Structure formats: structure tokens, C-alpha cells
Amino acid sequence: MSTNFPDITPLEREQRLYERVADKILLLIQDEVWQPGDKIPPERELAQGFGVSRTVVREAVKVLEAQGVLESATGSGVYVRAADSSVVSKSIHTYLQLLSQDDVEIRVAEIRRVLEVEIAALAALRATPEQRRELQAICAEMRRYANSARTLAELDFRLHLTLARSTQNDLFELLLTPLMEQLHDYYLYVWDSYGERPPDKVFAQHEVLVQAVMAGDAAAARQAMSDHVAYSSEVLDNRLKLLNKDANDES
User: Fold this and answer.
1) CA separation for the pair 130, 145 (Å, rounded)
2) What is the pLDDT of residue 104?
3) Structural domain of residue 188, as residue ranges?
4) What is the number of domains present in the chain?
5) What is the CB-side half-sphere exposure of residue 194 using CA atoms within 13 A?
6) What HEC string does 116-165 produce?
7) Residues 72, 63: contact at Cβ < 8 Å?
8) Residues in CB range of 55: below 8 A, 6 or more apart
């Protein structure tokens, strides 16, 4: 019997009915028929309106609740949630955690090289006076806690996320937060074992960057962040080589 079927092509997967209902509900919210805080019609009315069973509506609502679009209040009903960037950040972080760990840190570092350089430039142009003071304060705190690796790692996170917030574009923080969280262990490693990364050198890189932001100099901020992320990537590469060497020695 021949196993060659040149005329057969894969069937297109049709959306499940509950997914179509979820899309319709989402479209109504996007069109502002239902706005944040609004209570959507009860399950029975939605089922009648969409011409589906209540089970299908229930599944659609569960999907949208998982996505952070809707929320249920016991005994009250289902409401439209305000946009919450943390839900998206958590989803991205979960996705990164599920990726193969072989090269995920390198891939994340590549994204940071693109993302954070422009974040720094925009922060220089848009940071509020309060945000500029916060960046200066973080740099001062890093000097103060030079002997505490865990504190330095947390301050490092805070510096980069404050820069993202200083762009006044919440999408930057939404994207950067899960990337930084994925590198959490790496940051602790770096600050816990300075090795080829003397803290004074990193402090100086941060301070040059913050000075450029304070001066509103986008070009200088862009260059400072480019230098800093390149150095960070170099340290990451050295760390991964050491880990691979240790793994090969053990085998």
C-alpha cells in the first residue's frame, strides 16, 4: 500500500466554540461596550445572545479570567478588569522559565542589548525630577551596600526598572520586568562573586549612565547603557563558559 499522498494537506484547525465566544467578549471590551469596572451580563443572557450553551460561556469566561481580562466576585457576578500589565509580565516570565535553559540567558541578554539602550535614551528625555532623584539615590545606596551581594542585586534590578518607568511608556517596564526576573540568579551570582567584575567598575558605569539621564543627554545615555550591557554580556558569557567547563569536568 502506497504511503505517498501528494494531494493531502493538513486540515486547518478551527477555533473551539468557547475561544470564539472569548474573542467576541474581548472585542466588545475593546470597543468599550463594556468598560473596566462594568459587570457583564449573566451567563444565561450571554448564552442566549451568542447562541451557545452556558457551558461554552463558562469556559470562555474562565479563559478571560486567566488572561486577567475579567474577574469574578462571589455572589455578585463577573466584571471587566482594568488593564494590568503585571498579568502580561507574569505570562512572559512563565514562558521564559519553560524554555530550554541551554541558551535562554544569552537570548535574554541579546534582547536587553536592543531594549535597554533605547530605554536609557528615552529616560534621559522624559524622566521626571522625582525619577532622576531616585536614580541618583540608587547609585548612592549601591556604594553604601558594597559588601552585600543580595542588596546590590536588588538595587541593580531597581535601577534598570526605574529607567524603564522613566520613559513614561509602561510597555517598556512590562517587557523588561520578566527579562530581569529571568536573570535573577545571574545577578546574584555576579554580585556574590565579583571576580572579573569589580564593584567599583559597575558603580562607575551606573553613575555615568545616571549622569547622562540627569543632564537630559539622550546620546550619552544611549552610549553609557550600550557599554554597560556589553560588559554585562561579557560577564555572562564568562560565567556560562565556567559552568560548561565544570559540567564537562564532572562528566
Assistant:
1) 22
2) 72
3) 86-240
4) 2
5) 11
6) HHHHHHHHHHHCCHHHHHHHHHHHHHHHHCCCCHHHHHHHHHHHHHHHHH
7) no
8) none
The one-character DSSP state at 33 is S
Q: Would the pLDDT of 53 be above 60?
A: yes
Q: How many CB atoms lie within 10 A of CB 4?
A: 6
Residue type at 236? L
- How does DSSP classify residue 197? S
- Give 162's pLDDT tier (boundaries 50, 70, 90): very high
Q: What is the CATH number of the domain that holds 37?
A: 1.10.10.10
- Identify the weakest region by mean pLDDT among 1-10, 91-100, 150-159: 1-10
Mean pLDDT, residues 181-204 taken together: 70
Predicted model pTM: 0.68
Q: For residues 200 and 229, what is the distance between their CA atoms, to the nearest angstrom?
A: 16
Phi, psi of 73 (to 5 degrees): -115, 120
